[in-house]
């Protein structure tokens, strides 16, 4: 891919035996990372493998509990450095581009860039600084208007502002934290080209990822983290996707899940011509018609912010459509409230676990009964039945192996994976009770595996497949194309609030999915 | 309406609005850095009582102003420690400081007079008007803007400098950035902790000094409940001014003017209840709040700092 031999280039970063502990967790243990000049170095690992912690140490946000850091970004020789704060890291030539952009929406591009720059004069001259930004933008082929307010920019443009910000302040090492998570495959390829041209001009790049394909496509070398430790550092040219997966997970990984053919039941959830407004009074869901039948998983794909949130809210009764109808198990629930949808047979595993899924300060017991507290035996008239609540909590905690399984512990004390297991336990219990007879229940799961470790992901996926097997209609919103292709029977692709197409995952390539996500209809 | 009436209303509006401008700009600094300080009323009244007591005992009004500023600053330091270091709820801490301040001021007013007696009813030193030769006899604005005491004159410097500082300088950029997003600021190397402390204390100092203007010039003297809820008007004014020092002046004059008009109306013998006029600042504030949340664009351009009221802790995992 690159013509020069990476081995001959000098080291610019060496992290030796880095250890970082959090209360109850060792996030990094004796991790070693070496980056050369002008290299694109991928940092690969599952969620929770310690990638973000390691990079937070490298950009001065966290202080390591052990190990040492050696830098040669502004000089020839490696030199041991202690980064006491992000400011130190910036001075040392390290620039971090976060997945969640560190930009202030109300500020202009120029103000955002000046915010982190070392040489910003005491009295601002926005015109002159803007001109200098435009000049750097041109040199690195990163077009952006310096006077635009950040909240007016697209996600891709905001990412360019982030990269530009680091270059403006003279970063010689760019850290990109899961930079493609918010991009379409095509935008990702454009980012790949940008990375290569930056590397060619001598900038070193570390990009964090848990996606094997993009590591193989964009990186020169890759360091794999597993369980907070370094699994290996290898040249991308020397490895296959299966090799990387084995290093990352610690065992052989199958890229397809065995699932029996769908046994389709009756229509469970029917959206007909649904249009809904978003929070900003613009049309977020536009004339969407979808039918989900019992016994199938309908995947919803799309770049974040293309109407998934609003569509899910329509499906669960949290948002009233301005046009069209929503029918659940034969009953027209258009305009009804969330409680009607719950009682009508719709379960919801929301994207925001602590925000929408659980009441963090309440114990597990209270969280378990959030959807059943109105009915016998959990309550009788207006009074809660403590004993029944406890029995139900213990039953569900054990069934889904929620750890630690203390029913009186606060829900916010659980890890992300265990929070998700608790929500699934509650929602699936609700669908189980509703699924009596021929009418299938509906389970809407939004980003169900986001941020979870491998073990928890398997539990979640098994639970979804199991629901499908017993005849429930499952809707799964995900940003992980591999997951969508593995689990779904059909995939609906959203762009700008419209369904660009409903496709069969087996016969649709990832590129075609990408085109649909970018808003192009397949001919 | 004849010219004399307008002139005199403007004069009273400026005089009454001075303490509002000072405290509002202080609170704008504090809120712009992300800290909501509902203790303004407490800090103003403590500034008023300590300022007057100091001036009475030392016969030096300037020393009174200095002590009032220090007292306001110390109270803000308590708020800063509770909300920034301990990450306590900003609303609870602010309300507690107001309750503490009003109670303590009332108590001090009973015991720090001569021989441990009350301050109420004493006549002490006060700021005198310094008419500016020539300018003070201008029609319409002469009386209001150029025949005032030195605290009012100081606003001619404080207001433009605050505005310029906030929008045109690097420290101002940093200050606004911390209030918009503390984690973003920290990540780009703008430290949050010191700025939040500094501007919270500055806001307290300005509230204290504003309080002393009431007891050393506007009223003057000490009576129970001297501030009469001006600290709450300040909180409303910050919103009315949409966190902009220049607009704060307009708001403060308007609300100061409410006082003036009230006196006039009473003198003329109308029976419009005073409460209606007293409500007007808050009604206007609600209208502004409705306005700035109407559209995305307005919220983004003149809305509240996005990080207002949100504590920050660097190593807290999301």
TrEMBL record, chain B:
It is a multi-pass membrane protein. InterPro entries: ABC_transp_permease. Keywords: Cell membrane, Membrane, Transmembrane, Transmembrane helix. It is found in: Cell membrane. The chain crosses the membrane at residues 6-23, 35-56, 62-84, 91-112, 150-167, 232-255, 275-292. GO terms for molecular function: transmembrane transporter activity. GO terms for cellular component: plasma membrane. Its main location: membrane. This is Nucleoside ABC transporter, permease protein 2. It comes from hydrothermal vent metagenome. The lineage of its organism: unclassified sequences, metagenomes, ecological metagenomes.
């Amino acid at each position: 891919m690159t013509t020069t031999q990476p081995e001959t280039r000098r080291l610019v970063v060496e992290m030796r035996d880095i250890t970082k502990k959090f209360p109850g967790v060792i996030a990094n243990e004796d991790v070693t990372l070496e980056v050369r000049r002008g290299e694109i170095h991928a940092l690969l690992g599952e969620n929770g493998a310690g990638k973000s912690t390691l990079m937070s140490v490298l950009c001065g946000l966290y202080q390591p509990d052990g190990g040492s850091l050696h830098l040669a970004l502004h000089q020839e020789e490696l030199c041991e450095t202690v980064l006491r704060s992000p400011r130190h890291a910036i001075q040392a030539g390290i620039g971090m581009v976060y997945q969640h952009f560190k930009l202030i929406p109300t500020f202009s591009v120029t103000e955002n860039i000046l915010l982190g720059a070392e040489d910003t004069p005491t009295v601002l001259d926005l015109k002159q600084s803007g001109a200098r930004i435009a000049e750097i933008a041109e040199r690195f082929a990163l077009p952006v208007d310096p006077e635009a307010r950040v909240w007016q920019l697209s996600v891709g443009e905001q990412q360019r502002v982030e990269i530009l910000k680091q270059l403006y302040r003279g970063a010689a090492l760019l850290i990109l934290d899961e930079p493609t998570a918010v991009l379409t495959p095509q935008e990702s390829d454009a980012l790949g080209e940008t990375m290569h041209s930056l590397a060619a001009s001598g900038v070193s790049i570390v990009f964090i990822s848990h996606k094997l394909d993009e590591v193989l496509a964009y990186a020169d070398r890759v360091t794999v983290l597993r369980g907070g430790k370094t699994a290996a550092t290898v040249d991308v040219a020397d490895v296959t996707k299966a090799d990387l997966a084995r290093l990352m997970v610690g065992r052989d990984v199958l890229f397809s899940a065995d699932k029996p053919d769908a046994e389709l039941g009756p229509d469970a959830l029917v959206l007909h011509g649904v249009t809904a407004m978003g929070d900003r009074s613009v049309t977020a869901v536009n004339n969407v018609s979808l039918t989900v039948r019992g016994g199938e998983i309908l995947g919803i794909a799309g770049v974040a912010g293309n109407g998934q949130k609003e569509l899910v809210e329509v499906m669960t009764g949290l948002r009233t459509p301005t046009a069209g109808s929503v029918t659940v198990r034969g009953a027209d629930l258009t305009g009804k409230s969330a409680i009607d949808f719950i009682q009508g047979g719709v379960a919801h595993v929301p994207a925001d676990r602590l925000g929408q899924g659980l009441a963090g300060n309440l114990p597990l017991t209270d969280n378990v009964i959030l959807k059943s507290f109105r009915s016998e035996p959990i309550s009788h008239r207006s009074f809660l039945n403590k004993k029944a609540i406890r029995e139900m909590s213990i039953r569900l905690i054990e069934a889904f192996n929620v750890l630690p399984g203390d029913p009186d512990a606060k829900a916010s004390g659980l890890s992300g994976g265990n929070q998700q297991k608790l929500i699934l336990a509650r929602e699936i219990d609700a669908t189980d009770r509703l699924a009596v007879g021929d009418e299938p229940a509906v389970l809407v799961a939004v980003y169900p595996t986001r941020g979870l470790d491998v073990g928890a992901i398997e539990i979640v996926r098994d639970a979804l497949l199991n629901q499908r097997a017993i005849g429930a209609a499952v809707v799964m919103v995900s940003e992980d194309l591999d997951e969508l292709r593995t689990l779904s029977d059909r995939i609906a692709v959203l762009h700008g609030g419209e369904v660009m197409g409903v496709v069969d995952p087996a016969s649709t390539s990832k590129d075609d999915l990408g085109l649909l996500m970018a808003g192009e209809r397949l001919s | 309406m004849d010219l004399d009436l307008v002139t005199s209303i403007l004069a009273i509006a400026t005089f009454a609005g001075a303490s509002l401008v000072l405290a509002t700009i202080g609170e704008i600094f504090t809120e712009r850095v992300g800290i909501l300080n509902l203790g303004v009323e407490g800090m103003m009244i403590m500034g008023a009582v300590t300022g007057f007591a100091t001036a009475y005992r030392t016969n030096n009004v300037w020393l009174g102003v200095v002590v009032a500023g220090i007292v306001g600053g110390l109270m803000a330091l308590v708020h800063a420690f509770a909300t920034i270091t301990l990450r306590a709820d900003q609303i609870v801490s602010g309300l507690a400081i107001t309750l503490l301040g009003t109670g303590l001021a009332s108590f001090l007013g009973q015991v720090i007079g001569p021989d441990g007696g009350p301050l109420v009813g004493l006549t002490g030193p006060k700021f005198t008007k310094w008419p500016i030769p020539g300018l003070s006899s201008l029609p319409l604005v002469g009386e209001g803007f150029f025949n005032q005491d030195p605290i009012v004159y100081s606003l001619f410097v404080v207001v433009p400098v605050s505005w310029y500082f906030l929008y045109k300088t690097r420290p101002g950029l940093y200050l606004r950035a911390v209030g918009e997003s503390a984690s973003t600021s920290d990540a780009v190397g703008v430290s949050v902790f010191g700025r939040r402390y500094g501007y919270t204390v500055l806001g307290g100092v300005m509230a204290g000094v504003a309080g002393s203007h009431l007891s050393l010039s506007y009223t003057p003297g000490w009576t129970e409940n001297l501030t009469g809820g001006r600290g709450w008007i300040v909180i409303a004014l910050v919103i009315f001014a949409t966190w902009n020092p220049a607009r704060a002046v307009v708001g403060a004059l308007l609300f100061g003017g409410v006082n003036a008009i009230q006196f006039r109306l009473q003198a003329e013998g109308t029976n419009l209840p005073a409460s209606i006029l007293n409500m007007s600042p808050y009604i206007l504030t609600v209208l502004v709040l409705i306005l700035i949340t109407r559209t995305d664009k307005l919220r983004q351009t003149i809305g509240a700092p996005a990080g207002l009221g949100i504590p920050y802790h660097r190593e807290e995992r999301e």
